[in-house]
Amino acid sequence: MLMSASNSNPTLEVLISEARIAARVQELAVEISADYHDRLLHLIGVLNGSWVFLADLSRHLEIPVTVDFMGISSYGQGTTSSGEVRITKDLDGSLAGLDILVVEDILDSGSTFLYLEKILKARQPRSLRLVTLLDKPVRRVQPVRADYVGFTIPDLFVVGYGLDYAQQYRHLRDVCVLRLPGSESVA
Ligand code: IMP
Ligand code: MG
Asked: What confidence tens digit (pLDDT) does each residue in 80-122 have?
């Protein structure tokens, strides 16, 4: 059984530095701004993990932008997805006729986005795409791919830049691998 993070002195190792993240986020914003040239883009941040990425990405976009958030829970307090996805906060506004870009922190099994895509498409947006800061393709269970990917990473459990372990570490500036004593990583 995993010990709780507060009692066990986990180690953190930088995987992607603050500087690399900043440079890549800027590149993504340039690419997205070109693809949606002259259009209004409606960003949907998937809470809680995507809020830091969304804040940085949106401030580099050079097109008109609106923002809404959806709360989704799939992990609970653990480190492996329960497979059961549920909405904890719905969007405030309608999606009808809008160009939607869903903003995710990480694409893992794909279950969360598959579920979200079904719900959002039923609300008749003009278009729907996905940008994810991180992609762990080896973990994929569902046939899901992102339109824009910040970094492709191996099968490691990462925290920081919005990503958490039991709600901790979201405020770290780098993306770090979290390892607990006695385990290679918590993945
Ligand atoms: P999926 O449904 O398996 O694709 O999982 C997506 C969600 O799981 C992400 O939005 C994260 O909240 C969480 N997640 C997956 N891998 C990690 C990780 O390495 N660290 C922290 N959260 C993760
Ligand atoms: Mg998430």
From this structure: 655 678 899 999 999 999 999 999 999 999 999 999 999 999 9
Domains and CATH numbers, the chain: 18-153 (3.40.50.2020)
Q: Phi first, then psi: give them for residue 4, nearest 5 degrees.
A: -70, 145
Contact 106, 83 (CB under 8 A): no
Q: Where is 22: in which H helix or E strand? A: helix 18-35
- Ligand 1: residue of 105, 131, 156 to mutate (most ligand atoms within 8 A of CB) is 105
Q: Which of 54, 70, 75 to mutate to test the pocket of ligand 1 (most atoms within 8 A of CB)?
A: 75
Q: Going by C-beta distance under 8 Å and a sequence separation of 6 or more, which residues neighbour residue 170?
A: 48, 49, 52, 159, 160, 162, 163, 164
Which pair of tokens denotes residue 126? 């003009």
- Look at ligand 1, atom 12, and give the residue with the nearest C-alpha: 49
Q: pTM of the entire structure?
A: 0.91
